[in-house]
Every structure is written in C-alpha cells, then in structure tokens.
Amino acid sequence: MVRAFAGVALALAVGCSSGEPAGGTGGAAGSGGLSGTGGAAGAAGSAVGGFAGLGFECGTGEPVADDRPLPKDVTAAAPNLELAATSRRIEVWAPVDSPLLDSEVTDFGKGSCQALLFDLDVHQVPEADLSTRVRIVVVDGPTFDLATGAPGAYGVAFSATKSTTDAVILPADGLENLVELDDTLAHELTHVISGRAAPYDAWLPWWLIEGIAVLSGSQLGKKLHDQPTSFVMDWLDIADGSDAELTFQRYGLEDQTQNLGEVGHDQAMSGFFIEFLRVKIGIADVQKRLLGVMRKVSDGDGFDATFAADLGVPLAQAKADYAKFLDDTAGDLGKRYAGTVFE
User: Fold this and answer.
1) How far is the C-alpha of 247 from the C-alpha of 268, rounded, in Å?
2) Measured between alpha carbons, how far is 339 from 343 in angstroms, rounded to an integer?
C-alpha cells in the first residue's frame, strides 16, 4: 500500500486512493462574506477566495484558493456533486439530487466546524494552518460503499495528492445519530489535520495515525454527549498486555488487519495507548507532541529517535509500560480508566 500522498484513513477500515477525479474546479470568485442561499455558482467546484451555496460561519480569516478537484474515487462514484454549503474553513458537498434539506446541510456544516475547531485546539494547531478549506462530501450509503470500498465504516478521509485535494466522505444515514456523527467527524478531521502536517507518512505506524484520531473522536464525544467512542471500551474491558503487543505488531508501518473486527481491536488499543501516554505517563500535551513527531518523520527524521526526543520516553519503554499497565489492571477497570476520557 502506497501511503505517501495517496493514503485513505478510515474510521473502521483502511484502503487506498489516488488519481484525478472527474469533477470540475470552476467557481465564482468572492469577497469572503457569506452569500446566503444561492447555490448555482458552486455547482461546478469551489469558489476561489469566496463562498458559494448555503453559508454558515466557521472560523476566522480568509480561505486560501484551492483549485484541485475532489478525489477521483469520490467523483467517480458520485459524478453529480455540487458545492452545497460553504464557510471559511469547510465546504460541504452533496449530490445535486440529495434529499437533505437546506437546514440539514447547514446544521451538518456547523457540526463539522465544531469538530474541526475542537481538533485544532487539542492538537494546538493554528487555524491559519488549515486556511485551505476542508471538503466534506455527504452521499447515500451505496454511493459511499462504492467510493470507499468500506461498507460498515462510518467515514473515510482521503489524503491530498499533488493534483487532488483531501476530503472526508460520509454516508448520509450517519447524520441520523448525532453521537456517532460528532465522533466520526472529529476522527476523520484529525486525519486531515495530520495529513496536511505530515503528507509523507510511509514511515509512520498505523497505531499512531489511527490512535490520535480515535482519541480525538472520544474526547469530542465525551465533551458533547458524555460518550467516548462506542466500540473502544468493548475491546478495552477485556484487554491485557498481549492485546497491546498484537496491535503494535499488526498495526505498524504496514496495516496487517484482515477484517473490521481486527481493525476495531487495533484502533481501540491504539487510541487508548495515546490516552495512556497523556494520563498515565503524564504527557499532558501528547497530541501536540505526536503531531510534531509526525511532521518531523514526514520530513525525513527517524521515528523511534524522534519519539524519544519529543515525548521524553523511549518508544520501546512506552510500549512495554502500556502492556504491563493492561496486565496490572486486567481485574480492576476502575483503575484502568481512572482519569481518562473513558472513565
């Protein structure tokens, strides 16, 4: 699997995507103010420097023009997409014949904005670093499955290439469950943030790529609904050190998972490892530090040495301590979850 500039990070499954989409990129230039409800100008692509479609508030500062089209796999499955709603930080795309009401589109846009701004805060990333808008595509379930090859996933984040923009795609029926939706948005938008920071990710392990996303989703879910990511604790309740060791082996530089069950297991263990570093090891700004590690490794630094230097603990020791912690708390879940987002 080629991940540099071509990876796809999924909430519950993993695949690849690259190449040119069929959609256009033309759009009317604008001055930065919200344009109300006129959607025709955005049907062919992103308005450069301004707004098209329904308007909703999200962030500050003017967006940076991005003429790159949506990922090919998305537009091949949904060739009739239009820009349905726009803000400074986020674009919402949907099929021309989408049954979603205008109010549903704008509410979704606002929820997406909330998740994005939350992610930027916990990773301590300036909003200006995401001045190029994030594109989120909402399609029906069968179209989602066709575009992603990941039936059963809640959402997919496509990485940017030199010729196509990054994008998040979601099945429309996922909008019905607000708890899962907020979790998924925070998860997938974390992939966008980390993908822009570290586009050359071939030397980054999957436990890190997915672990920080799982933790972001859990943190936002806990904040908004008092419910962290639903599937994580099912695995953590029964985990011991061997589960950590299996995850580090199977979710390393290559993703060796074979099915959604294995993906769920490894993502749960990965997300809790990041939380273990934050709470049990005491690295309060672990997400900021790990994003810094990802940037440096993307630029060519070695992973193990950078991890040790930036987090203050050797990676092998952190892994061993995590496995021991799971063994020591196998009969005491209160101790295991104490102080964590899963408490």
Assistant:
1) 9
2) 6
Please check whether residues 149 and 274 belong to one and the same domain: no
Partner residues linked to 54 by β-bridges: 85
Q: Give the number of other CB atoms < 10 A from CB of residue 104.
A: 16
**How far are the Cα atoms of 130, 152, 193 from residue 140, in angstroms, in the given order?**
27, 13, 25
| Tokens 């985990």 -> residue | 239
Buried b (16+ CB within 10 A) or exposed e, 116-127: bbbbbebbebeb
Residue 28, classed as helix, strand or coil, is coil
Range 96-99 contact pairs with CB under 8 angstroms and sequence separation of 24 or more: 96/43, 98/138, 98/139, 98/172, 99/172
Can you give the residue range of the structural domain that contains 77? 7-197
Query: Which amino acid is it at 326?
Result: L
- Considering the domain boundaries, does residue 2 fall inside one? no
Which residues, 6+ apart, have CB-to-CB distance to 136 below 8 Å? 90, 91, 92, 93, 112, 167, 168, 169, 170
Rounded distance, CA 130 to CA 112, Å? 14
* 172 and 218 assigned to the same domain: no
The 3-state DSSP class for residue 169 equals strand
Whether 148 and 255 map to the same domain: the answer is no
Torsion sign, CA atoms 333, 219, 211, 140: positive
Domain boundary among 143, 167, 197: 197
pLDDT digits (tens, 9 = 90+) for 103-118: 999 999 999 999 999 9
Q: What gap in Å lies between CA 13 and CA 257, rounded to an integer?
A: 9
169: Cα within 13 Å, side-chain hemisphere: 33
Count of domains observed in the chain: 2
pTM of this structure: 0.87
List CB contacts of 313: < 8 A, sequence separation 6 or more. Answer: 281, 283
pLDDT, one tens digit per residue, over 103-156 is 999 999 999 999 999 999 999 999 999 999 999 999 999 999 999 998 888 999
Residue by residue, what is the 3-state secondary structure of 51-89? Answer: CCCEECCCCCCCCECCCCCCCHHHHHHCCCEEEEEECCC
Locate 137 and state its tokens.
């595509």
In 143-285, beta strands by DSSP E: 156-158, 167-171
